[in-house]
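Re: the 342-residue chain
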Amino acid sequence: MTDAAESRALTRKDFSSGQAVRWCPGCGDYAILAQVQQTLPKLGIPRENFVIISGIGCSSRFPYYMNTYGIHSIHGRAPTLATGLKCARPDLQLWVVTGDGDSLAIGGNHFLHALRRNVDINILLFNNRIYGLTKGQYSPTSELGKRTKSSPQGSIENPVNPIGVAIGAESSFIARTVDMFQQHMSDVLLRAAEHRGATLVEIAQNCVIFNDGAWKHLTDPDAKLENVLYLEHDKPMRFGQKRQKGIRLNGFRPEVVDVAEVGEENLLVHDEKAEEPTLAYFLSRMGPPEFPTPVGVFRSIDKPVHDQLLLEQVREAEAKKSPDMNALYRQGQTWEVPQDAM
């Protein structure tokens, strides 16, 4: 790369691979791809320092469409590859692109522990509540009673709550956005990229073929203001066409109230910096029909970063006096390592 190219500001075009994008017409993945390609140039990071790692599923075609380094890995294991690469190359910025089936079924263990360890990677979880690539079976996030090709009488399984799982894993950054909320998505992606440690961004995404309208209550122009709660740090939780509704905590249970009746000072104030994750868990369980669906940053706290701690241990070990391995190997059939050499 020339000096002129290095100094030139990157644009969305620089992050487009030029490959033909092969998703169904109308798929929410197009909107996510567009916003990621528009957002990454804003970070001021050389393009060769980005790596996109995916698993299996419609979302996992993502690396082919990004003009960065990329790995199309195996089902559910993208967080594992990202962990290894981050530990080997901490200078890289890693983005894991996965779906609700890829990360929360076969990949549940890997997803959980990447968040628990607080590895400095960014996980984008495309949640369309269905298995799209394999033609419409119910997924871990499908609603109870969902009728699909693999559940013709309705799913009898309780759905996984991705935000709740991340909170249980004590993830240091947790957020949700929607495929059609382009500016909101960009803001959330920037926040995730700037965070030190593991980040989860759940993206409510539409599958126009097998689960069309899964998030209609969030995207319908006539209804979304009544159904979406935009989380803003240190601000009272208000929503509605005229922001006339709010969330108040009644004992240990949130409730919807009329702001004019109770007063804004009695509303629940969002605190994304709270070390105690109880409030974030309350929010993760909100949704229709009783509550609006929260979007934005649920939690953003500082915690020790796994790969950084690992490198510190490696440096400490290297700084200690090492035994003469050649002498040990040649001294006989057996040998002892002196205590002071450890």
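The longest helix spans residues 306-319.
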